[in-house]
């Protein structure tokens, strides 16, 4: 099935469910409200849950999809007074399965320059127990294809993983480590024919790659000009460091030298501290403007007295 979001002829936000084999008439359609914001659909194939979040408002609607009528069933709705400008989601492998968390949003609140996490939970009587019906096998973080296989047109399903703690699922696809022959075959796919129409030779391929690298380096030098003798603004490249130690927070991967707050009270303290700093800066700017106005008035008065 296909789901589309948009507006009706009466400028009402609408969701429509279609059959891919017959697009002449929709299977289901519903008008939601009269807001003008764009709807962001988020679908969870593991639980067949659909989340509709509106841009510019603070509502997130939750639905359950099924292959039989009525196809879409409304579950619940989240409302907030703070409008959201955009949303991001946490991958399923980052959820807290012990508390039956099935989805997590990160709401971008523009009015407060804040990213607010919002979790969706399924209430269960027994907490701390892994619920297999809520967490089936889901897409993992291992690639099912190499770059060479993808260029050759091979298609595979994603490698699945279990969200159950301490569970291990083997990769069903054989892991092939790239060697020099594979890299040579991969680079030979970049250029198929010479300008003259003849077969590709190693010397021609080398010249093409060399010219391409020279062009890229010249572009980088022209765009980011710098003097090697001046290293005052140099900073180490942290992306190349593989020896970081991460703190043991449930879902955060931050360096241990600057760990994030782990409790809600600490988050609130940090938020209020930032608000106080912003307020102090605004007061300083206001005093500066007042002082500038006073100095301008004194200059005008002195000029008038001199005349």
UniProtKB/TrEMBL annotation:
It comes from Iconisemion striatum. Pfam families: WD40_4. Keywords: Coiled coil. GO terms for molecular function: actin filament binding. This is Coronin, actin binding protein, 2A. It comes from the Eukaryota. The keyword Flavoprotein does not apply. The keyword Coiled coil applies. Residues 268-298 form a coiled coil.
């Amino acid at each position: 099935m296909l789901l589309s979001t948009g507006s009706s002829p009466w400028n009402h936000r609408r969701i429509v469910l279609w059959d891919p084999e017959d697009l002449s008439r929709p299977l289901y359609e519903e008008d939601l409200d009269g807001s003008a914001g764009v709807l962001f659909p988020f679908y969870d194939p593991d639980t067949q849950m659909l989340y509709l979040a509106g841009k510019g408002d603070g509502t997130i609607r939750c639905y359950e999809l099924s292959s039989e009528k009525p196809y879409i069933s409304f579950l619940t709705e989240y409302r907030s007074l703070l409008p959201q400008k955009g949303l991001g989601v946490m991958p399923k492998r980052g959820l807290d399965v012990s508390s039956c968390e099935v989805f997590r949003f990160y709401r971008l609140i523009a009015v407060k320059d804040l990213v607010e996490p919002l979790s969706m939970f399924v209430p269960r009587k027994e907490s701390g127990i892994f619920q297999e019906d809520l967490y089936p096998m889901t897409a993992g973080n291992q690639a099912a294809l190499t770059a060479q296989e993808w260029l050759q047109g091979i298609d595979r399903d994603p490698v699945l993983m279990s969200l159950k703690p301490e569970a291990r699922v083997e990769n069903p696809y054989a892991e092939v480590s790239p060697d020099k022959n594979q890299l040579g075959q991969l680079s030979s796919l970049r250029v198929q024919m010479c300008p003259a129409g003849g077969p590709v030779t190693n010397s021609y391929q080398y010249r093409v790659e060399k010219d391409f690298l020279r062009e890229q380096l010249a572009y980088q030098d022209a765009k980011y000009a710098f003097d090697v003798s001046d290293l005052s603004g140099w900073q180490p490249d942290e992306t190349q460091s593989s020896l970081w130690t991460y703190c043991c927070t449930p879902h955060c991967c931050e360096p241990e030298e600057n760990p994030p707050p782990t409790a809600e009270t600490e988050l609130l303290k940090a938020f209020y501290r930032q608000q106080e700093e912003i307020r102090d800066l605004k007061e300083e700017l206001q005093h500066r403007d007042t002082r500038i106005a006073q100095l301008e008035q004194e200059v005008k008065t002195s000029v008038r007295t001199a005349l």
